[in-house]
Amino acid sequence: MSGLVLKLGPHERVLINGAVIENGEKRSRLAIMTPNANILRLRDAIHPEQANTPVRRVCYIAQLVLSGDAEGDEVRLQLLRGIEQLSQALTDHDSRTQLAIASRAVLEDQHYQALKALRSLLPREERLLAAAGRA
Asked: Which of 21, 22, 41, 124 gives a 20 to 30 Å CA spacing to 94?
């Protein structure tokens, strides 16, 4: 994750390698130079009770890795299984592309990139669930 640039709004919080950092009163940019740093924007964090859909559950697992609350081969396997299950339901080209990016990122221990790719699927999942609710 070398060279990641975070743009933070006033008083925005971010978790970096287990430490919560809060920005000051003005917008700022942070360049994260440490490779494989675990970073999670707290405004994007999914709380356990919000992990109630397939995409949210897989995002939550990736988030646990970034927060330092989960690690190891078992979590990697859970993430890859979750991504595979999502690929069975989300068959359009754009979803498949994001799932491939997420899979590759997990295999390369780039969990921030995996979470970013997975989060891009949340609006699509919402639309699908809303349409299924109407049917």
From this structure: 41
CA distance 93 to 132: 20
Phi, psi of 53 (to 5 degrees): -135, 165
Question: Using an 8 Å Cβ cutoff, are 67 and 116 in contact?
Answer: no
Dump pLDDT digits (tens) for 5-55.
Answer: 889 999 999 998 888 999 999 999 989 888 777 888 898 899 999 999 999
Residue 95: strand, helix, or coil = helix
- Name the nearest CA neighbour of 57 among 85, 92, 91: 85
DSSP class of residue 44 equals: G
Rounded distance between C-alpha atoms, residue 34 and residue 91, angstroms: 35
Length of the chain: 135
- The dihedrals phi and psi of 55, each to the nearest 5 degrees, come to -65, -45
